[in-house]
Amino acid sequence: MASRGASVALSRANRIKSKLQTALEATVLEVDDVSYQHAGHAAVKGNSDNETHFNVKIVSPKFDGQSLVKRHRMVYDLLADELQSGLHALSIVAKTPQETTGAK
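Given the sequence above, the corresponding structure tokens read:
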């Protein structure tokens, strides 16, 4: 049986997935922690948090009619608290379901 304290210990990747899935109703959501590629990066030296860099691929019907900049802003706004608490960099691929079905 999971305890309430378990939610506090969620990894940043799991928090990101949860926030994006809930708000954007993603049909595809991939969150990859690539922090290991930046271990010696000056901006993360001395940071005890090892989850600082992520690649996010998200497909959501809520992106329909939105520019790429607006889609990215939507993601950044949802993750504002993560960005304030140690998340350093995000690479975002944000598409609508229609944009993925036509691509071969």
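The longest strand covers residues 53-59. Try to locate this feature in the token string yourself.
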